[in-house]
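Re-run with default settings, no changes from the original entry. Doing this only to confirm the output is reproducible before filing.
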Amino acid sequence: MDKQEKHDGAHFLRMGLKQLAGHRPDRALETLRLAVEAIPPACPEELSRALYWLSVALLRLDRRDLAVKSLASAQKLRRRGFARDVYLRRINGYGMVRQPTVELDDFYAFMNIQLAAYLSRKARKRFDSFQEREAVFKLLLDAWKGISSGSLLDGRESCEKLILFRKIKPSFPRFDFGGDQGSVNRVVRAGFGSTASFGAAQQRGAQASSRCVCGSGLSFTQCCGRVKGLEEL
């Protein structure tokens, strides 16, 4: 059965590569997903290769969150291969796609952490209205201005900043959806608070910078503890 699965996976992988070469990443995406599903876990090198090319298709479609997820899985399966080299070149200390500046790396890490925390509590994992989305983004942008304008992040490693970002607890907006049919969504409250303990964050940051327990050889924040994109919810 494994041989048949491997044969099917190789077939889908060849088809996906042809579709990528033909500038059809949309078709290649579906074909390469079939390749990943068909290749058994007992064939890590083949599976790593399929996951790598799946990440390429996702990047061409600008679905960066899922591309990083696929690339992270590929380099775990083959830690000294091409996927590992590409992964290390493309990601920052948060395990996210590297931005042009450190400040942007910090900003995207903070926003992804807070938005994921908010959306993960919602049944459909998405905003229910434009008003809700705008209120949440305004709250987080105001919070980021306060964080970045001071010296809180100065001299800190990514692992320490990551702990701080995860300890900050916004008081997210709450919306009323009741009332007449013609009524609009109304924000009831919105605020921002922080429960960060910076001394504890430094201690936990030192742990986060150590090697990941999965044995990948990477730091925890670049491996199993990386910041996950919203598409991974």
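The first strand starts at residue 170 and ends at 176. The first helix runs from residue 2 to 21.
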